[in-house]
Specification:
The complex is a heterodimer. In chain A, β12 and β13 form a beta hairpin. About 11% of the residues of chain A have low confidence. In chain A, α1 crosses α2 and α2 crosses α3. By secondary structure, chain A is an alpha+beta fold. Chain A has a 15-stranded mixed beta sheet that branches. Chain A has a five-stranded antiparallel beta sheet with strand order 16-23-26-25-20. Chain B is built from nine helices and no strands. The longest helix of chain B has 23 residues. Classes of the chains: A alpha+beta, B mainly alpha. At the A-B interface, α5, α6, α7, α8 and α9 of A face α1, α2, α4, α6 and α7 of B.
Chain lengths: 546, 188
Amino acid sequence: MKHDPTELWLSQLVDGSIDSVSLDALIEAAEGNAELADRIGDELSFSELIRQALDDRSPAAQSNFEKALESQGREPSALQSLVSEGKATSFDYDQIVKRLWENPGEIEDLRRDLIEDEWFSQVLSESKSEGAFIEALETRMWAETRQDHFVEDFTLRLEQEFAESDEADNIVAFAPSLFRTVAKMTAVAAAIAIGAFFTVQQFSGRVDFSPAVASVSKASSDVSWSEFSSPDSDGNVKSGMYQLDSGVVSLTMASGSEITVEGPALFEVRDDASAHVHAGVALARIAPNDMGISLKSKGLNISEPTKLVGIDARSENSSAALFFEGGGGVCLEGGGGCRNLFEREAVKSGESGDRFVDIPFNPHAFSKAWALLSGVEKNIGSVRIELPGSEIGPSKQVESEVQVFVENESFRPEDDLEVDTIRVGEFASAVANPGQNLQAKGDLRSYLLQLWPSDGNGAGPEGEVEASLTFDHPVVGVIYSSDRLAGSDASVGSSITNVGETFNARRGLDSGNNQILLSEDRRTLNLKLKGGVAEVDQIRVLVALN
Amino acid sequence: MEKEDRELFIEQVREHHATLRGFVRSLGVAPMWVDDVAQEAFIVAYNRLDEFDRERDFGAWLRGIARNLVINERRKDARRKRILSDNLTDVLLSSSSASDHEEEELGDRGLAKLNALRECIKSLPEKSLGLLKSRYENESSAQDIAEEFSMKPPAVRKALERARTALKKCMDERLGVDSESNGGYCEA
């Protein structure tokens, strides 16, 4: 019997192993055999189908092919529209590029269209407004130029310009300034807040006779509450909604945790362990023995914050959480997922509330709240209250300003601390002295005051810098001599011990040219500092918390 | 950095941010990344402020920085790119010199145009304003807007184009610019 090799050739054709001689023979056989030709066609088609079925990229390739075809048929105006929307495919862009190469005159037209599209966005979208852009730039500038005065300078400068521009109201208004944007947003926020406030009042009712769950522990001098939405006259805070028009207040919850709110703000105290910030800025310091506090804001639910967390709910549709000290968990309201954040991380809820948006850690918005929470009730002169997390480093920072760092919020020294002797009620030169022991009893807070000289010239007459600081707890120890400063760094848990570099050996007030006065109630420290010739001067202040 | 330098910088941010963002967009940067690139240009400028020749136009210097940032985008990994398309940016860059005169070349009067535009928008019919807001405020595509307004996508594009044309005309009238002297750009 004659052997028919076509089955073998066909098999080799399908698996790709057929040689040219066999292929030619198969073709020759198929030319005279329609059935064989059909069979070859079927086998090859089926092989291709299997290949496509096994190849993950095939659907994408097909889709790309369809997109390419679709792109070919699009009108130039439709293509341009897709470019403006940022929704064009790579094939669309290729079409546009081809057209632009053929018609170079249209390149500038397209650029103009894109520019105008950008302007439309800037005018029509709040998120693209001048205020939003500058605020975001501020954040980045702060993040990338940490110790610079950029933000402060910027704010001051803009405030000055707004004050001037408000006086002259032009017919064609200048670009809406940050001030106007903020004012507008504040007005809108206030309207929303008031609406929300009355809605909540109407539906939930204020529990007038319920027990207090918190109390006002501190307040700035400019505090103003909205009518019918303030704490009791004795400072008791019951469950309900509160509207702070201006100023900063600290509420101490029954659990011992503190919530400091900066007006304008609308917030709700729900019980002794939970609060909801509807609008404004708030800082929450969690007491060490607090089992947990629940903080909510627009779109965010902050659970288990460990030490110090900030909430920025000034935007209309979203809020941000900044973890200053210690980490914690943040969840999106409505079950949109949770994230664990570490210290010095920040996140905000997306506008639609269904996702997290990572943002730079910028504590600037919390300056006022922190000033109150830091325990420095009042400061006069060249004083700068540094935000939590600010590094105390040996390289030169701000000049001719007394920087105030909260070194350790609360600690209990293991051993007695050696402090400098200071007379109460009169200015005295800071000179070498025998010192005295501060007994290791009770909880303390440690502040580090620091002054960098300005090229040896200082700020005031004869290079003197004056400052006055009033603390919310009595000062029980002041350390200003270099050796005692170095000796107490570790005891107070100062971050100086972590910087890896060392300060100058004479970092204290050893020159004898500086004067200190501690008021008789031990709350206010007045300083007249000449400043070191070229190096930093430091003073450590210890206050008793209980 | 000297205080006066910082003050100069702050002034320049206010003066140039709108036009810089337009310039960045005109180089094919994706709409969502325009502010990011513009901010980066400002930060680079701030860090190099001591290199700035005060005889020069600050806006042109900024545009030069932004232009270089955009050029660098082409070298980035595809996932990190902030531009729409390498080829498109190449073409658009070819017509951009970032020269001191480019603003004039592009018929750009920056803030004045922006302010005029703000005024013009107030006079738009409600529906046109709604379409524009959907497009620019909500960043919806023509397809999404069509669904929202029960229209067909081409009709949305046409309506948006009409609204834009009306705004351009109004803007130029407010600025006292003859549309013909602006390259016939205002209205067909």
